[in-house]
Every structure is written in C-alpha cells, then in structure tokens.
Sequence to fold (157 residues):
Amino acid sequence: MCPGSYDPVTLGHLDIISRASRVFENIVVGVVDHPARKKQTVFTAEERVAFIEAETAKLGNVQVKAFDTLLVAFARENGAHTIVKGLRAISDFEYEFEMNQLNRKMAPDIESMYLMSAPEFSFLSSSGVKELAMFGGDLNGLVPDAVAGRLQEALQR
Ligand code: PNS
Fold:
C-alpha cells in the first residue's frame, strides 16, 4: 500500500511507487479522499486517481484507489500487509514517526517500510509544486507533463 494525498502526484511519488512495484508483487496506491483531513485539495480524488493511473499503467502491478477511512482499515480491506512511504529530508521523519506509531498501535500486524527518496527528489513536495504553479514557475522535471498543464490551468484561474 502506497498511501498519500497526492495533490498532485509528483515525479518523486512516482519514483517511490515504481521502486515499490519492483519489491512487492502487487501495489495499491491509496489516495486520501477526506475533505476534513486536509484543507481543500486542488484536484478531486477522481482526478488525482486518474493522474496516477495514467502514469503507473506501464508498471503492470499497480492499482489506484481512493479511500476515506483509516489507512490501516483500507490496507486490511485490500489484503495489504505493508505500508510503503517515501522519506525525503530529515523533516519528514518526525511526521512519519508519529504516523508509524499510530498505525502500529491500531494494526501491529501491518508493517511500515520507508524508501529513501532519490537525491533529485529530496526537496520536491506537492505543496512546493503548487506554490511554483501559482506564480507561473517551470514545473518541468517535477510533475508529469499532463499534471503540469492541469495544475497551471487550475491555479491561475
Ligand atoms: O502526508 P499525506 O500524503 O497526506 O499522508 C496521508 C496518510 C494517510 C498516508 C497519513 O496521513 C497517514 O499515515 N495517516 C494515518 C492515520 C489515518 O489513517 N488517517 C486517515 C486518512 S483518510
């Protein structure tokens, strides 16, 4: 299970998903679809799912689904025994450590594993990309081309 908000998916997320798809037989990408959890998203859950589906279809063992329940419940529903997340700079550690403890308390049988981000994606985040897009910055090499166009359109509106 590769969970996240993915608003929008970045090349860093896609790197983690594709590396995880070489380690595990099947991957479910879980896209958070809960309005109360984060402030408003730029893209609907359906749009975020579609972006990821388009970019991961070639991998052959990746399914993409939206969810609005506890992550561990969603993992169980899908028969997933491992939660895979990417870790970028040190700043990710504290948040991920907390999520790890919460998830472990609720579901000690589901393991969490962390893949270190590739250096070129270490400082790439969906929020950084949105900020760039809002001010007309170049998104080349940060998000898939299809996402870049849609993001610029959405944020400049
Ligand atoms: O940082 P992200 O991408 O928004 O992470 C989302 C997620 C669900 C992976 C993270 O918040 C997490 O591990 N949450 C555990 C608690 C939970 O199940 N929340 C409900 C989400 S619908």
Notes: The chain is about 45% helix and 15% strand. Residues 76 and 110 are 8 Å apart (CA to CA).
